[in-house]
Amino acid sequence: MSKPEKRITYFLKEHHVLTLATSIGEESWCSNCFYTYLSDEDAFLFTSDSDTKHILMGLENPKVSGSVVLETKIVGKIRGIQFTGQLIKVENTEHSKYRKKYLKKFPFAIIVNTDLWIVKVGFFKMTDNRLGFGKKLYWKREE
Fewest beta carbons within 10 Å, which of 46, 68, 77, 78? Predict the structure, then answer.
């Protein structure tokens, strides 16, 4: 299976907030979530309560999308990633590999009792103006 280009995974490991977009029919919603990127699974790992609007919508329609961006006013430095994927609830017990990975990046989350979720990424589009104005890098999961 092909892996995303290293520029994509490096960018995702540099950052920690994603915007997650969900939708059901004509209704859509977005939220911001602290994440850790699981390069071995090409997935985002984040926490959220099960009764939040974005999770309730994601449970009904697990096809989600989102973005991770570098905030800058300098056009030549613009970088960002858009993605699509599948929302999946994962185990959040004391010995869960996902819990350990999340707490390694966000140790303060140990005091929060929320659920753990992954977005199994199906597609990335990265814009990186450092490579030339409007330069895009793409990756699609091969199943």
Answer: 77
Enclosing H/E stretch for 99: helix 97-105
Domain boundaries, the chain: 6-140
Superfamily of domain 6-140: Electron Transport, Fmn-binding Protein; Chain A (2.30.110.10)
Q: For residue range 70-122, list pLDDT tens digits in order.
A: 887 878 778 899 999 999 999 877 778 999 999 999 988 776 778 999 999 99
Distance spanning both ends of the chain, measured CA to CA: 8
Distances (CA, A) of 47 to 13, 52, 135: 17, 11, 32
* Longest alpha-carbon distance in the chain: 46
**What angle is formed at CA 69 by the lines to CA 137 and CA 82, rounded to 5 degrees?**
45
Rounded to 5 degrees, φ, ψ at 11 are -60, -45
Beta bridge partners of 18: 33
